[in-house]
Amino acid sequence: MEKILKISGVPVTELAKQYGTPLYVYDEKRLIQQCQSYKQNFVHPDFTTEVLYASKAFSCVGMLRLIKEQDLCVDVVSMGELATALEAGIDANRIYFHGNNKTLEEINYAIEHNIYHFFVDNLQEADALKACIEKTDKVLSVMLRINPCIEAHTHEFIQTANIDSKFGISIYSRDEIKVLIQSLKTHKQIVFEGLHAHIGSQIFEKEAFIKEVQTMFSFIKDLEQDGYSCPKLDLGGGFAIHYTDQDQPIPIHEVCQTILDACAQQQVDQKTHVKTIMIEPGRSIVGEAGSTLYTIGFSKQTPHKRYLFVDGGMSDNIRPCLYQAQYDADVATQMDSRKDQKVCVAGKCCESGDVLIPEIKLQPFSQGDLLIVYSTGAYGFSMFNNYNRNLRPAVVFVKDGKSRLIVKRESLEDLLKGDVR
Description:
The protein has 421 residues and is α/β, with parallel strands linked by helices. The chain folds into two domains: 6-25 and 289-416, Lyase, Ornithine Decarboxylase, Chain A, domain 1 (Beta Barrel), CATH 2.40.37; 42-283, Alanine racemase (TIM Barrel, Alpha-Beta Barrel). The chain has helices at 12-19, 28-41, 61-69, 79-87, 104-112, 123-133, 174-185, 206-225, 252-270, 283-286, 319-323, 412-416; strands spanning 6-7, 10-11, 23-27, 48-54, 73-76, 95-97, 117-120, 140-147, 169-170, 190-196, 232-234, 276-279, 290-301, 306-310, 329-331, 341-346, 355-362, 370-373, 394-399, 402-407. α2 (28-41) packs parallel to α9, α5 (104-112) crosses α6 and α8 runs parallel beside α9 (252-270). The chain starts with 5 loop residues before the first strand and ends in a 5-residue tail after the last helix. The relative contact order is 0.16. The model is unreliable at 154-160 (pLDDT under 50).
């Protein structure tokens, strides 16, 4: 094994020297492979299918240009994500606008920029959408987000379908849902196209997705019997990835086949008339393709643990603080050594909870060595924060021995430009 880790043929030492640390590094080939895997596997003779990249996982112009090149649609949840998609050249008709509390400014901005597809989360949003569209001569496609009330076995903060979830309308509120669908279907500027559901993130069990399919098709049967057609069904995402050796995610081809086979079976069993099935992978496209590179600083021995400090922390990866996310890592400049040093990897932020990895065995290290934390491609950059006024790291794509800058490192001038003097 070589001493210096290479990412897609590029030594990490070169990356650190050229771009500095902390640094978000993405294997571009891996990103493309994940996109193509979904495109190739999410197909079925009984349905038209659509893959929407959940851009909240990692959104910047460079990433969304790649998504455009791979011919995926995009879902966005804010005006900022929408503006990024438009700047990347994504066709407005291939952008889907999510969100449980869209502001009037966001709705109007989307309509002005010819966004056609909206997911409606609740009754008040539907009323707001109608009021905004009636000021124009445009027509919108609307899908209604349903909470299927299925509790996936994942962290409570990333469950999205428990009975008290903030997302969607409870599937048990059937009368309310039918009234809402009726109001959408009869509006002359709205085309009601179907339902959306999502049961959580980082899901490892096929049975959870099968249960989601069964629940939604049963509900669609009930709606169809009352005269409400639902030609489209979006089943969300939540497909797990590998963070540590304890994780055994479902391979993409298996999760796609599981979902589509379950849909085909339910279509027969329930005698429904669904035409299009959609999914929204985000984390599973970018998560494992991205890593974060740090420079090791000081270390400290306390009575019960040894700390290894890095030049980043909860500002560039808040997930361990938010929901105890676990990661694997290596001393990327000592890859040929045994991992026999038990340490706690902590950051430089002024919080006791600023811990990236509570306990891990690593190779021997010295100040100035590079540490790589794997599978940070989803929700690292997206959730970056300027706590302690730390500067946002750069983002680079690497491919075939070459690197290219995707997002510039934030400067002190960038940091201070919004401050009124």
